[in-house]
Design brief:
Jelly Rolls; six-stranded antiparallel beta sheet; four-stranded antiparallel beta sheet; 12 helices; about 45% helix; ExsA-like_N
Length: about 280
C-alpha cells in the first residue's frame, strides 16, 4: 500500500510498488521535491524525470502521465508537494501589488533543483512527515507564502507562471481531443481544459464527432491499442496504461468485444506473421 497524506495544501507521498503508472491533472500549480526513487512525467511537451533531490515547479491545468519507479538502490519513490492554490496566489498578488502578467508561454515543468533556498525550504518540511499534526493550518499558510517568496526571487518565468490567472480559453475541440484522448481523466476535467462547461463540452462533442464522449474515447483508445500491439510490437501490459485504460482486464474485455480477439492473441498473430 502507498502512504499518502495531505495536510492542508501540503502532500507527503511514498509508494511501495516497484512500478506505478497514473494520470495527473492539477487545477493548481505544484512545487515538489523527489526524496527518493524516480518519477517520470510524460506530456505532449515531452518527458521530464524527477530523481532523488530534483525540485520542480509544475504548471496548473496540464495533463501528464506519471510513472513512478524505485531508485537505483531499490528505494521506493517518495516526494513532498506544495499546492499553490489560485485563491492564495490571488491574495498574495493583491497584498504585494503584483502587476497583471502576460500569458505564460514557457515549459509546463521548471527544473529548480539547483536552488539552495528551495532545498532548505523542503528540508524544513521534513519533520512534519513524521508528526503531521504539528503542521497546523497557520504553519501551512506561512510555508506556502515562503515558497511563493522564494519562487519570486528565482526568475521572471516563475512570476509569470504563478500569476497568469487566465482560465483555459475555448479550444478547437476536435484537435484537442485527438491530441489528448490517451489521458485517463474525467469528462469534467476534459471540459475545463477545453474551456467549456461540462454540458457545453458534451453538446459540442456530439456535434463534431456524432457520438458521445464516452463511446468515442473508448473506440479511439482501442484503435490506438490495436496499432501499438500489431505494428509496434508492444505488450498488452504496456499498452493498456499507455492508451488510457485503468486496468488490464477491462481493456482485454473491451478489445475482444471490438476486434474479435484478445490483445494477447493479436500480439501472437502479429509476431507469427512477421517471422
Amino acid at each position: 500500500m502507498d502512504t499518502v497524506f495531505l495536510q492542508h495544501n501540503i502532500l507527503y507521498a511514498q509508494g511501495h510498488q516497484k512500478l506505478q503508472s497514473s494520470e495527473h491533472y492539477f487545477p493548481d500549480h505544484a512545487l515538489g521535491i523527489m526524496l527518493s526513487g524516480e518519477s517520470h512525467y510524460f506530456s505532449n511537451e515531452g518527458s521530464f524525470v524527477m530523481r532523488e533531490g530534483t525540485i520542480c515547479l509544475m504548471r496548473r491545468n496540464e495533463l501528464f502521465k506519471k510513472l513512478k519507479k524505485v531508485g537505483p538502490n531499490g528505494e521506493s519513490p517518495s516526494l513532498i508537494s506544495v499546492f499553490l492554490e489560485q485563491k492564495t496566489l490571488h491574495q498574495y498578488a493583491t497584498e504585494n501589488n503584483i502587476p497583471k502578467q502576460n500569458t505564460y508561454r514557457g515549459k509546463a515543468m521548471l527544473d529548480l533543483t539547483n536552488n539552495l533556498f528551495l532545498k532548505g525550504f523542503f528540508d524544513s518540511l521534513l519533520p512534519y512527515r513524521d508528526d503531521p499534526k504539528k503542521l497546523s493550518a497557520k504553519i501551512a499558510e506561512l510555508k506556502t507564502y515562503e515558497a511563493i517568496e522564494l519562487l519570486m526571487q528565482t526568475n521572471n518565468s516563475c512570476q509569470t507562471l504563478l500569476f497568469d490567472f487566465q482560465e483555459p480559453h475555448k479550444l478547437d475541440l476536435e484537435t484537442y481531443m485527438n491530441h489528448n484522448f490517451k489521458y485517463n481523466i474525467s469528462l469534467a476535467s476534459f471540459a475545463k481544459l477545453a474551456g467549456r462547461s461540462l454540458s457545453t463540452f458534451k453538446r459540442d462533442f456530439t456535434k463534431i464527432f456524432n457520438t458521445t464522449p464516452e463511446k468515442w474515447l473508448q473506440q479511439k483508445r482501442l484503435e490506438q491499442a490495436h496499432y501499438l500491439l500489431s505494428q509496434r510490437d508492444m505488450r498488452p501490459s504496456e499498452v493498456y496504461l499507455e492508451v488510457g485504460f485503468e486496468n488490464l482486464s477491462h481493456f482485454s474485455f473491451a478489445f475482444k468485444k471490438t476486434f474479435g480477439l484478445t490483445p494477447t492473441e493479436l500480439t501472437d498473430q502479429a509476431r507469427s506473421t512477421s517471422h
